[in-house]
């Protein structure tokens, strides 16, 4: 069951499951001139915190400039709900993704949700599936990203 669902998630969303290398972070947006890097964590099922996090991300882009800042939002645990297909922030996520913000979804959390749902959850198209949310944050911090949990 999980393997079939995993293949479906990989087809529907960009995925780092097959080529994730801890010592070599990759990104969906090409930002060759980014000088400032920030990773934001969403791990709570709280829409007010979700909005605050997206506000923080947008403020960083507005301050430094879209070509000079790389912002990655990593959602895991109960916070993964922000990246579900029916998220109340789906339109805003699409808009911020178009501006260069990356939205990473924890595959470990997706697998846990699949046990209850009977299938992997459907994500917004902009969500990038990463092996683990905490591991992705660790990877980015090791690579010099500033870390913020609103």
Summarize the structure.
The chain has helices spanning 2-12, 47-64, 90-98, 107-117, 133-142, and strands at 36-42, 69-75, 102-106, 127-130, 146-148.
Fold and architecture overview:
A five-stranded parallel sheet has the order 4-3-2-1-5, sandwiched between helices. The protein has helices at 2-12, 47-64, 90-98, 107-117, 133-142, and strands spanning 36-42, 69-75, 102-106, 127-130, 146-148. The protein is globular. It is 39% helix and 17% strand. Helix 3 links the parallel strand 2 and strand 3. It has 150 residues and is of the alpha/beta class. The protein contains five helices and five strands; from the N terminus they run αβαβαβαβαβ. The N and C termini lie far apart (35 Å). Residues 1-10 have low confidence and may be disordered.
Q: What percentage of residues falls in helices of 4 or more residues?
A: 25-40%
* Number of beta-strand segments: 5
Oligomeric nature of the chains: single chain
Main beta-sheet strand count, sense and barrel state: 5 strands, parallel
State which percent range the strand residues make up: 15-25%
Question: Order of strands in the sheet with the most strands?
Answer: 4-3-2-1-5
The number of helical segments is 5
pLDDT below 50 for ≥5 consecutive residues: which ranges? 1-10
What structural category do the secondary elements indicate? alpha/beta
Q: In whole angstroms, how far apart are the ends?
A: 35 Å
Please trace the helix and strand order, writing H or E for each element: HEHEHEHEHE
- State the shape: globular
How many whole angstroms does the radius of gyration measure? 14 Å
In round numbers, the mean pLDDT is: 93
